[in-house]
Amino acid sequence: MTLVKIAYTTNTGNTEGISEYLEDAFEDLEMEVVREEADDIDSDFFEDADIAIVATFTDGDGEIPFGFEDFYEEITDQELEGKIYGVVGTGDSELYPDFFCEAAHLFDKALAQTGATKGAEVLTIENEAEGEDVERINAFAKEVASK
User: Fold this and answer.
1) Can you give the residue ranges of the Flavodoxin-like domain (predicted)?
2) CA triplet 66, 101, 90: central angle to 5 degrees?
3) Alpha carbon of 92 to those of 12, 41, 142: distances in Å?
């Protein structure tokens, strides 16, 4: 069975909610899913995964959230060749128009350096997932899984 690992961090609960939607979407595709908060994982979290997913918000002026900093700094040292990855970001484009979901794009670049294959374009979501966002999350999971 395909193993999907989802690493997430949350501040307001929006990204945690999105990670739960991702978990449901991959389980609906009959995949095994492990979902963990960034504070609870090490840099080798994706080592045994077939699919690696990062779900993050962006802190301050386009920065990686505090709870994800160590993981982010160490991820490029991992060799994830043969694995598929995807990144989902949450943000507020009204408060941070210049840095909307910047941390997700930084993770996308970092994961590309590991040798993993990008499964889908970065999915960005305004604040919490609602209505069409859930459909976009399901489509994202299907696209990643199809790789």
Assistant:
1) 4-145
2) 80
3) 12, 26, 26
6 sits in which H/E element: strand 3-8
- What architecture does CATH give domain 3-146? 3-Layer(aba) Sandwich (3.40)
Cα separation, 124 vs 32, whole angstroms: 24
Maximal C-alpha separation, the chain: 42
Task: For residues 88 and 100, give the distance between their C-alpha atoms in angstroms, rounded to a whole number.
Answer: 12
Matching residue, tokens 């995949």: 31
Per-residue pLDDT of the chain (147 residues; tens, 9 = 90+): 999 999 999 999 999 999 999 999 999 999 999 999 999 999 999 999 999 999 999 988 899 999 999 999 999 999 999 999 999 999 999 988 899 999 999 999 999 999 999 999 999 999 999 999 999 999 999 999 998
Beta bridge partners of 117: 84
Sketch the domain layout of the chain as residue ranges.
3-146
